[in-house]
Amino acid sequence: MKIAIVGSGKVGAAIGYTAMLKGLAHEIVMVDAARDKARGEALDMLQCLSFAPPARIRHGEMADTAGADIVVITAGIPRKADEPRVLLLSRNAALIADLVRQAVHYSPNCIIFMVTNPLDVMTQLAYQVSGLPVGRVIGMGTVLDTARYRSYLAAAFDADARDVDAYVVGEHGETMVCLTSQVSVRGVALTALPAYDQAKLAAIIEDVVRASSEVIALKGGTVFAPATAACAVLEAIVRDSRAVLPVCTYNEQHGVALSLPTVVGRHGAGPVLPLKLSAAEQEQLAASVANIKKYVKEMENLL
To answer: Fewer CB atoms near the end CB (10 Å): N or C, the chain?
Structure first.
């Protein structure tokens, strides 16, 4: 398994490092416009190999990604604490379109895995310019938001985060939808737990929506959680585990790329699984879809 990571900033480097520790690839190629940055990250990872699973770790140009099974794209200008993700649209759209075309040129059988923000719009752009089947262009989507949601729920209601079944769907952004109607812990409804409190749940949802901005304000960027979420998707592909993850793919029914619970394996992403939503959640999801569509239209005007 060869994984190419295009963008060797904090998140790209952390994804490469985590993938190496998990033994997800026999070869990892780090690529960045700042070639020395990619070289430095690759060397730093290479020096771990006496304590990590065997792998070939190197840096290179886009041509060195040739034959990659998965191309992870994290390149782009990161957001600041006071910026919505969508403001990155004008900065990153042309860059991402070019990188996706190059990735597919060198690795026509690859899976494209998008991490660059604004995630939903960039995933749709990647799908449109790649010419790949819909299931082979995957965005990290709300896998990260779902991880945050489950972690906060676990902390608030005294549970193991790995036992919490809860999803965030829709946009990886300000209109994300934290589903509440079917949250459970090992099959037990959240509302049945002794510690359950409706006001506490509402506060958790607010915390999830602002989680990224809070971390950016405190330490300058989110790194570990995005890398861990990204590698959960990579692991599902590499191990062909057919894990259910709320990745972002283009959805014909909604006419836009968005995140919904989806089976992920070596084939890529799909099928998308049906959701039983409350009336309020359906309204929230519709608003989230409308918001993504608005930004897709803006993107189309830029290109």
So the answer is: C
Number of domains in the chain: 2
Which token pair is 193?
Answer: 């737990």
Distance from C-alpha of 204 to C-alpha of 178, rounded to nearest angstrom: 10
The answer to whether 55 and 20 are in contact (CB under 8 A) is yes
Q: Is 172 a catalytic residue?
A: yes
Per the structure, the complete domain to which residue 244 belongs is given by 142-301
Query: Looking at 26, 59, 172, 267, which residue is catalytic?
Result: 172
| Residues of each annotated binding site for substrate | 79, 85, 117, 148
> What are the pLDDT digits (tens) for 100-141?
999 999 999 999 999 999 899 999 999 999 999 999 999 999
User: Which three-class secondary structure state does DSSP give residue 281?
Assistant: helix
Could you tell me the pTM of the whole model?
A: 0.95
| Sequence-distant (≥ 6) Cβ neighbours of residue 102 within 8 angstroms | 62, 65
